[in-house]
Amino acid sequence: MSLTPVKVGRSTPSPAKSPLQSPKQKQRLTLPELSRTRQGLRTALAKCLEAAMHRLDNIWTDIGLDEEKKCARTKVVFEHMQTLLDDMATEEERCRSELRASMQQHLDDCVKLSAELHVDMIPIDEESTLLEKEQTVRSRCGELSKEKHGRVKRMKTYHADEEQLCNSLCRPRSLPAVASDACPTLVQLDEWQEVVDGLAREQKKRLKDLVATRQRLEDLWNELEVGPSTEFEEQLVNASTDKLQLTDSTQSQAERLCSEGEVRLAEHTQVADDLRVCLVPLWDRLRVEQGDRADFMAGHQGCRPSVIKSLRTELERLEEIRRENIGAFVLSVRQELHLLWDQCQFGSQQRRKFHPAFTEEFTEELLVLHEEELARLKAYVVENAGVYQLVERRDRLWTRLQEIVGNANNPDRLSNRGGCLLKEEKMRKQISKELPKVEKELRAAVQQWEAVQQVSFLINDARYLDSIENQWDDHEQRKQAEKDKRLQAKKATVDDQAKYGSKTPAGAGKRKNAATSAAPASKRPKTAPASSSRRPLASANATGPGAMPMGGMPRTPVKPALRGPTSLRSAGNAENCPRSARGT
C-alpha cells in the first residue's frame, strides 16, 4: 500500500491522536531551553530536525517503504519545510514593511501636527532600531494628537460659549470664524478665553442688575397697586432669568420704569402725608380719642391708592362734622389765638389788625381765615423764640430789680431775720451783673430782627427798645424824686431846730433805750459789723427822714460808693442804679 505525502502545517497534531509515539516526542518541550542564543537555537533546531527525520525514517521502515519511497517522502518533507520557511520569511518581510510604513505615516503625522500646533519636532535617534523608531514616533504622534484634540475641544467650547453669551447680550459675535478641524494656538486660546470670561462677567453683572431692577419695579408696582401693561413689561416680569434679554436697551427701559414708579410713589407718599397732616387738626378740633387715632393710622400705613382713598374718605367725614360745628371750631381757634397773643405780648392794636377775630358771624371762610392766622402765628413764635426768651428773661430781672428797690424803704427788712439782707445783697449783685448783659444781647437781637423785617418790634403796642428806655427814665425819675423828698425832709428838720432849739423829739427816749438794750448784741463776733458794712445808710433809713441821732446832733448822710461801673447802689439807697447798667 502506498502512502500519500503528509503536508505539515504550523500546528502539530495532538499527542493523543498520534498512533505511534516514541519517547523522544517528549523532548520538544525542552528544546527551547537548550540555549538562549541564536546559535544555540539553530543547533537545537538542527537536532530537532534530525530527530524528526530519524523518527520519520523509523516510521517508514516499520511501514515497509523502500528506499525510493523514503526518498520521495523525504523530498516532500524538504519542500514542506522550505515552503514553511519561505512563508515565514515573507510574513516577516511584510511585517517589516508595515512597520516602516507605520513609522513613516506617524512621522508624517508628527510633522503635520507639529506644524499645526506650532511645536518643534522631536529628534529621532538614527542608531536605534526600526521598532524603537516606530514606537517613538507613534508615541509622539499620540501625544500631539491628544494635544490637538484638546485644543480643538477648547476652541469649540469657547465658540459655543461665546455664541450663547452674545445671543444673551444681543450683540454680534467677536471671535473669528474658524474651521471645525483647525487647530488654534495657545495664544489664540488664551485670547478667546479672556473674551469669553469678559462676556461672562458682563452677563453676570447685567443679569444681577436687571434682576435687582425687576425686583424693585415689582415692589413699586405692588406699592402702587398696579401691574404690567405692555408686552415688554409682561416679558420683563414673567420671563425666567435665562430668558431675559440682557441688552442695554432692556436695562435702560427697566430703569425708566423704575424712575417713573418712584416718581409716582413719591407723589402718593406726599399726598398721603398731606392727608395725615390734615387729619390731625380735625381730630384735635373734634377731640377724637388718641386710641381711635392710633387704630386708624395703624390700619392705613403706606401710600397705596386704597390707603389714600381711605384717608380722603376720613378727611371728608371729619370736614363734614366740622361744617356742622363751625361755630365751636372758630371759638376754639380764637382761644388758641389769644394764648399766642398773650405769649407774644400783643397789645389791643396788634390784636385788632386781625379783624375776623372780632366777628360773630361764623362761616367756613371765617374758620379758614382763623386757621391761616393761627398757622402764621405759630410759625412766627417758632421763628422768633430766641427773641421772646430774651424778652422774658429781661422782664424777670427787671421785676426783681423793682422788688428790691421797693423793699429798700421797708424798715422791717432791718431786723435781719433769716439772712434777708444777705440774700437781698446777693440778688442785687446777680441782677447788676446779668441785666446789662441780657439787655445788650436783647438789643442786638431786636435790632437785627427790625433790620430784616423792616418794622418795629412791638410789645404791648409799643416799640420794645423804646419801652426799655422809658422804664429806665421812669426809674431815674423815681430815684430823683425820692432823693429830693429826703432832702426836703432834712431841710425842714434843720429849720425846726434853728427855730425852736435843740429839743429831744417825742419818742427819743424809747430809741435811746432801744439802742442801749441793743448794745450787748454788738459784742457778737462779726455779725452786726458785717451787716453794717453792707448797708452804709441802713440806720439813716431806719430812723426815717428827719430823725435825729442820739446826742441831738443831726448826721449828714453819706453817699454809698459804687461797687463797679455796672453795679447797683447798696442797702440804704438800693433803688439807685447807674445809667451804665442799661447797656447803652
The rounded distance between the terminal residues' Cα atoms is 172 Å
Oligomer: single chain
- The structure class reads mainly alpha
Number of extended strands: 2
For the sheet with most strands, the description reads: 2 strands, antiparallel
Question: In angstroms, what is the radius of gyration?
Answer: 65 Å
Helix content: 55-70%
Q: Number of helical segments? A: 17
* Shape assignment: rod-shaped
For the residues shown, what is the average pLDDT?
A: 77
State the order of secondary-structure elements, H for helix, E for strand: HHHHHHHHHHHHHEEHHHH
Structure description:
- The chain contains 17 helices and two strands.
- The chain has 584 residues and is an all-alpha fold.
- It has a two-stranded antiparallel ribbon.
- Helix 2 packs parallel to helix 3.
